[in-house]
Amino acid sequence: MSDSTPYVLVLYYSRFGATASMARQLAKGVESVSGIQARLRTVPPVSPTCEAVDPEIPEEGAVYADLEELRHCSALALGSPTRFGNMAAPLKHFLDTTSNLWMNGALIDKPACAFTSTSSLHGGQEITLLTMLVPLLHHGMVYAGLPYSETALFTTQSGGTPYGATHLAGQRSDRLLDENESELAYAQGRRLARLALALDGMRKEAS
Asked: In the chain, N or C: fewer CB atoms in 10 Å?
C-alpha cells in the first residue's frame, strides 16, 4: 500500500509481551479490511532516573510512535496493561504530550478503541478501559467498543468485554491469548478499520 493509504494506529505499551500480543491480533483484524492498514507502534518506558535516555529505536518489537503518526491516523487503538485501574505511565506520558493535537482538533470524529491485559481475572480490566477512554473523549474521538453480535462475549471465561478486548495474562504474564480473546481482539480491529473508512469519508465530505 502507498503512503497515502489510511491507517489505524495501534499504539500500546507492553512490559512482558501480553499487551503486545493483543496489539498484533488487533492489527490482523484491521488488515482483514481492504483499503486500510495497521501501524503497530509503542512508547518508551518512563525512567525514575532523570539522566536515563532510551534508544531512538527499540531493540525489538514495534518502533516508537510520534505525534505526526497520531495526527494523521484514521483511527486509534490504544493498549496498555492495567496499573491500578488505569493505563501504564509510559502511555499516559505520551498522551500528555498531545495538547497541540487537542488544540487543533486533529483527532475529532476519528474512531478509537482501547484494549488491556491483567494478571488476575478481576484485576480491573473494565475500569482500565473506561479510564483509558477519557483522554480519547477529550480529543473528540468516537469510541467503539465490542457489540454483543460478537458471540465470544457470551462464551469467554477469561478476557473480553463490551468496552473493548481484554486478556487474562496470568500471574507471570505468560498465558497466551485463548481462542475467545484472539477472536475478540481480531473483531475489534476489524470493526475499527471499517469505522475508520466510513468516518474518513464523512470528514472529507464535511470539508
From this structure: C
